[in-house]
Amino acid sequence: MDNFFDALKMLGEENSVETEQLIEKVKSAMLKAAKRAYPHSEDRIRVEIDPSTKKFAMYIVQEIIDDEPIDENEINIEQAKLIDPNAVIGGTILKEIDISKLGRMAALSAKQSIKGDLREINRNQMLNKFEQKEHDCITVKVSQIEPGRGTVTVDYDGTELYLFRNEQIPNDSNIKINAIIKVYITGIVGKTKKPIVKISRTHKDLVKRLFEIEVPEIYDGTVEIKSISREAGSRTKIAVWSKDPNVDAVGACIGTKMSRITAVVNELSGEKIDIIPWSEKPEEFIARALAPADVLKTVITSAEEKNCTVVVPNNQLSLAIGNKGQNAKLAAKLTGYKIDIKPKTDTVTGETAPELSDDFVVPAAETPAEEVITEEKVAEILTDESSENAVEETAAEETAKTENLTESEE
After folding, report:
1. Pairwise CA distance, residues 50 & 23, whole Å
2. Cis omega (within 30 of 0) for bond into 69
3. Local confidence band at 346 (pLDDT 50, 70, 90 cut-offs)
4. What integer is the mean pLDDT of 10-30?
5. In this predicted structure, what is the pLDDT of residue 182?
6. Could you give the C-alpha distances from 325 to 278, 294, 340, in angstroms and in order?
7. Alpha-carbon dihedral angle through residues 187, 191, 194, 198, given to the nearest 10 degrees
8. Helix (H, G, I), strand (E, B) or coil at 123
9. Exposed, middle or buried, 283 (CB in 10 Å: 0-12/13-18/19+)?
């Protein structure tokens, strides 16, 4: 019987189930099995499991009579007194059931019942642990890396989760066992059966959650993330806006000496991040989104279909488009507009880009490149010997430009 209680304890530890809860499930399963073996004693069967005394027994409650018993639910008074000298007619006595004689089918039924109960317990535990964290960021520990398929097994509070290769950013190949990383819970599937928690490091909202962690102004709602576009492992553009005119949204995301943005970049294994000041004017927003390229003019060619044309200096056409069109694609995703980028002068025909209506034009002077904090600018400031002064000067310039822009709009 010691083996039973040892197995019970191990089963509880493997499934993170309290022993008392597991005992109740075993009792229920054994009752079902005994009722199959003793169908006429359905309401008279008792199960006793006590880990402290290591007692596991099953009984039938027999009624004491003075006649010949007609089934196992009755016992003659003379036989009852052999078991309990204080037995009296009309009373009851417990007859122990030989568990080994319940039969193979009863044992299989009990086993299946216990398995079903454990699945239900695990399902509820999984949902209780992760349902409130769906679409949120959690910190996990890498416990295993599968060499062939590249699947990373991570541990979160005793629960194993799987980070598949297609949900990893390219530099995650350098992750080591026992590393602490952050993942985004994209969803929970199979909630009514066997829940599976899906996690990702490529989802764009991971970047949003990381900034919420690092930037108090975003967490408390003062600074709002308006949109995000991302090519995981390569580059992310994030548009921010401040509800408080006294709070610089871009500066808040950068932090003192680039501390906040650096923390996010490090968590994403060096992924480049461009922080864009959001604008309610689409022309202005589009121009800023194409940073680090300068934009000479922007025109909305179709507001309904969200099409626009952007004119850039000849020497910045490739910069505006980006490697394999990355910069243009990210800007398009960030703004929601299809962007047609044209050089100021066509290199083939020599024609100058036509003048665009002033109603839709945003001169480059209104969207200076220094308003947008790109990875290149971060690196430049960090490598400057007087980085602290550079940050302060940049912040001061940003504040002054914002005030001048506000005054001009008024």
Report:
1. 9
2. no
3. low
4. 77
5. 96
6. 22, 16, 12
7. 0
8. helix
9. buried
